[in-house]
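Trying the structure run again after the queue cleared.
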Amino acid sequence: MHELTICEALLDRIAQEQEARRFAHVKRVRLEIGQFSCLEPEALQYAFEIMARGTFLEHTALEIDRPRGRAICLDCGAEVEVESRQDDCPACGKGRLKPTGGDGMRFIEMEVA
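Done. C-alpha cells:
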C-alpha cells in the first residue's frame, strides 16, 4: 500500500512548512490525484486520518480532486478526456488512445490558521 508512503511524505512536507512559517493549525489540505494514477484516494484519506492523530494536523480536512485522464487518439488525433485507460475515443469511437495526463498527484493548496 504505497498510499502510506505518499501520506508520510505529505505529512513531512506540511511539518516542514509549519516549522518554517510557524502556523498553529492546518484547516485544509487540497490535493489533485489523476484518474490514471495508481493511488486510491480513499486509502490516502484513511492513511491521512490515522497518521494525523495526535498531531497539529489531527482536525485537518483533506480534499482530493480527481481530474479525468487525458489522451490523444492515435486514429483521429483528437485530444480527449477519458475516465479509464480502456475507454474508446469519444470523438471517433476507436480504442487507440495514448495517455497524456491525469496520472500524477499534485499538492494544490493548504489553508492554515
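The domain at 3-112 is CATH 3.30.2320.80 (hypothetical protein PF0899 fold). Worth checking whether this holds up in the mutant runs.
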